[in-house]
Amino acid sequence: MIFLSTIKDTPSSAFGQPLELSWYIRPICTLILLYLMFTSLWSIPVVYLTWLFSDWDTPERGGRRTEWVRRWSVWVGFRDYFPIKLVQSSSLSPDRNYVLGCHPHGIMATAAFCNFATEANGFSNLYPGVRPWLAVLTGIFRFPIFRDYLMSAGLVPVNKDSIRFLLSQCGPGNAVFIVVGGAAESLQSRPGEHVVMLTGRKGFVRMALQQGADLVPVYTFGENEIYEQVRLSPDSWGWKLQLLCQKFVGFAPCLFYGRGVFNVESWGLNPIPRPLTTVEILLLLHGIHEDTASLLGSYSDSHLLRVVIELLRVIGLL
């Protein structure tokens, strides 16, 4: 199975920002609630926070996805900014569950978000009966209001309880996308380099085995190309700070930049429109009797070899 995404230049640079701006909404939502606490509208945050306490575990129980948010017209603009194209080459059976390991993380995991957390490319129309779930950092579900937006888009925490619930309690037809490399891989995101972090990351393989789900490698060629990142020396205090944040917080503060919103020659937070190609290969690896370590090796080997072969076939070189 192959998903092919192609990105080209377009003057509509303002549409490159929805994903990036969404992450800055987190502290804004929290500050608004704190501000309202000291106004005549104090009852609003009190009621919301009281409800939040009772709703705390909902993200790990499948959340509250809504097609209305996933079909916002802003996502179409986001897709067309690059543009990103999703090409169907085979079908996903709604009678099976899937765990999909996405590589590389890049800075924002842009291709994964557009293809699987929105309906900009019509995932549900291409694969009827299959529900895509994008697993992201658990900590961001602790932000008031922002957590509700994440759940409405079909995002879930990337932890055992959440993924196990989707694969065991929500019936068949669930496709859980996990950006396996996480913070460690984002630190290695640099144009012209392909780095995949699999060492010490066997949990997603073990989960697929235990739940009888098909294991699917996904690779996006070009994910590392849309942002430049400042390379810090391994001996510098900045690099050590990044590693500390990665260890204790779960993410690494990357020093990255793209291009400006109104002046494409300047630097800013807009991604650089460069080709992205997402290749996904269905591996029928499932069951509880396999060894996790050996399966991870098979996953890696099959991933690197078959991805290259399929990519060359898609672009017409084979």
Automatic annotation (TrEMBL):
Its EC number is 2.3.1.-. CDD domains: LPLAT_MGAT-like. The keyword Electron transport does not apply. Keywords: Acyltransferase, Endoplasmic reticulum, Glycerol metabolism, Lipid biosynthesis, Lipid metabolism, Membrane, Transferase, Transmembrane, Transmembrane helix. InterPro entries: DAGAT (IPR007130). Belongs to the diacylglycerol acyltransferase family. PANTHER family: 2-ACYLGLYCEROL O-ACYLTRANSFERASE 3, DIACYLGLYCEROL O-ACYLTRANSFERASE. One of its GO terms (cellular component) is endoplasmic reticulum membrane. Pfam families: DAGAT (PF03982). GO terms for molecular function: diacylglycerol O-acyltransferase activity. It is found in: Endoplasmic reticulum membrane. This is Acyltransferase. It is a multi-pass membrane protein. It comes from Leptobrachium leishanense (Leishan spiny toad).
